[in-house]
Amino acid sequence: MSHTPVAPAEAGAAGSEGQPTPPAAPASAGATIAPLSPDEAEQAIDLWDEANLLQPWNDPRADIAAALACPTATILAAREGGRIIATIMIGYDGHRGWFYYLAVARSHRRTGLGRAIVAAGEDWLVAQGAGTIRLMIRAENAHVAGFYRALGYEQSDLIVMGKRFGQG
């Protein structure tokens, strides 16, 4: 499946949050991928809930606001008929890119849409300067590892550690 890169280098004027606004990229038949707008937050959260991505320790509204306010992060959304059918939150930390909140509506799974939105996220992160992209898969979501393996991602021999401060 071909797609138009969604990358800051191709963007025109900055969006309302100061981020470059890339052109919409074709995703799959009838769908386009472009950055999420703040007024679409509830649609994205509903999709994340359907995909079982929400956790009590993360505030999805705060996550959306933070990603949209950061110049090296965004949320890409695939839309069809005005409805959000896939998302991926992406961020660049100065060393590597990160994926979060990859979700595809049940009605659109196994159509190539997940592959398309990941490719758009990769393009955006590479344009930011990322030479490596990382993601974390919760142990109970291990079935998604096969999806990422099919896209060329490999399991890294890393120990991920964390410390919570409030909601994050």
What integer value in Å does the Rg equal?
15 Å
Kindly estimate the percentage of residues that lie in beta strands according to DSSP.
15-25%
Number of helices: 4
Series of H and E elements:
EEHHEEEHEH
Query: Helix- and strand-based class?
Result: alpha+beta
Low-confidence stretches: 1-23
Mean pLDDT: 84
**Number of separate strands:** 6
Shape: globular
Strand order of the largest sheet: 1-2-3-4-5-6
Please describe the biggest sheet, giving its number of strands, its sense, and whether it closes into a barrel. Answer: 6 strands, mixed
- Percent of residues in helices: 25-40%
In whole angstroms, the N-to-C terminal distance is 36 Å
Structure at a glance:
This protein has 168 residues and is an alpha+beta fold.
What's the helix and strand layout?
Blueprint: E1 25-26, E2 32-35, H1 41-50, H2 60-69, E3 73-80, E4 83-92, E5 97-104, H3 113-128, E6 133-135, H4 145-150
Parallel strand pairs: 5-6
Antiparallel strand pairs: 1-2, 2-3, 3-4, 4-5
